[in-house]
Amino acid sequence: MTPKTTLYMIEERATVEAAKAAFDGEFEKFDDQPTLNGEDAGALLSEVGTLRVRHTGKKSLLAEAKKLIGKVSPEQRGEFGQFVQSVERSIVERLDAAENRLKAAVLEAKTEAERIDVTIPGRRVKRGTLHPITIVRQRIEEIFVSMGYSIEDDREIETDYYNFDALNIPEGHPARESQDTFYTTDGFALRSQTSTVQIRAMERRGVPIRIIAPGKVFRRDTPDMTHVPMFHQIEGLCVDKGITMAHLKGTVTEWLKRLFGEDTVTRFRPSYFPFTEPSAEFDFSCFKCHGTGKLDGERCRPCKGSGWIELGGSGMVHPNVLKACGVDPTVYSGFAFGFGLERMAALMYSIDDIRHLFENDVRFLEQFG
Ligand code: DAH
Question: What's the 261 CA to ligand 1 centre distance in angstroms?
């Protein structure tokens, strides 16, 4: 802005012009700014602060020019004063405008960074699935609970007494050999069968008793398609007055019918177990081919064409076992049975290699939930 009359001194005017020119030179880049990211805007904002001090502060040319107002002659003072003020106003306005723009850019960047999109679907907690062994175990537990049995759980580390002696397997008995398990250095063994729970349960609850005991058992087997060194069994025990082999057969047949269907039939083959007398292995008619051994004209796979699936061992509880638990075998009798869950799960879900059950590959495990 150039006043119409330039009565005041050239030098004073030059100081104001110099202040304006110095500011213009440095401030040019702020006048037309592209869209900025938050970081750049922040840096420029502090630069504007520096320019404000440099061009309007106490040591600025503008401050010097303002001091000159008092020095020019009274007639010239009004006009010169206005000139200085207009330059100052223009500088301050431009600083303010740039500062506001940059502050807005910083704020916008901050808001953008902190923005929450409430429409984005939440991250779902992935739902797990039940392990096939758990599914089979729970189904069998439900059946037994509905038949008046309770579920026993007991320790996996046992003494020789519970693992063998109390089950009528004395030292030197060949059954100890085949059940070779894992031993600790201080004489404990990982149980090789859930039959140990027969003893524990009778000691704890006395008789009459009706229990099933699902749990882990251990054997020194090299893993292959049908063997793993840790697997699961379910043990059953029923002791009361007047219990006979007929109760055993009825019970085993009933739970298998409930699991595999009403047309399921069972078969008991004489066998030997140290803790039962008489003893029998039990089979049930194949749930795939319904005992025919044929499926779509082909040999049925689960039963290998025999029509039967061998499941477990059973028998009438040996009098020595009852005695070991303080139960009088002349008053009480009972039956027991035991079977493995892995083979059952493998048959039910067509799993060709039971090692899959323990490799914890979720792609495998997810299929059963
Ligand atoms: N414990 C036996 C095993 O591991 C299975 C078994 C057989 C359990 C006969 C019993 C039984 O209760 O009476 O092979």
Answer: 24
